[in-house]
Write a structure and sequence with these properties.
The chain is mainly α. It folds into two domains: 87 residues, no CATH class; 33 residues. The chain is built from two helices and two strands. It has a two-stranded antiparallel sheet with strand order 1-2. The longest helix has 28 residues. The chain is flat and about 45 Å long.
Length: 128
């Protein structure tokens, strides 16, 4: 099984930013800016992918799928326990900036704080 990247992957000698690539229409491109240049926070990952090449990415995709299959990571959309589908994993992570992470972290802290207050209130009110 070849990775979804394989058909559009660049040869190993070609860096990923110059790979055959169709810009998404009416969608934000997470990895590249309007000038088709890698966004700063994606640069290191794209360089690594470029060094791996299509064969390296295919190998990682096949290994990830094998691990998911062997570990039984499946889903069943047809309510048929005899034909579950192996969960698919995108081997390229979604890279976010440190500012985006800080925003997410603040939200998580807020939720955790509210959850702790709720638990404490419940414990105090129901301790007798």
């Amino acid at each position: 099984m070849r990775s979804p990247l394989a058909k559009n992957s660049a040869p190993e000698t070609q860096p990923v930013p110059n790979a055959p690539y169709v810009k998404p229409e009416a969608a934000f491109d997470e990895a590249f800016d309007e000038g088709r240049q890698p966004r700063a926070h994606w640069q290191q990952l794209l360089e690594h992918i470029g060094r791996l090449g299509a064969d390296g990415m295919d190998d990682r995709y096949r290994r990830a799928q094998r691990i998911l299959r062997d570990d039984g990571a499946t889903y069943d959309l047809n309510n048929d326990p005899l034909s579950p589908s192996v969960w698919s994993l995108d081997i390229i992570p979604n890279v976010i900036t440190s500012a985006e992470w800080a925003f997410i972290e603040r939200g998580w802290r807020s939720v955790r704080h509210c959850s702790n207050l709720s638990t404490a209130t419940y414990t105090v009110n129901n301790s007798c």
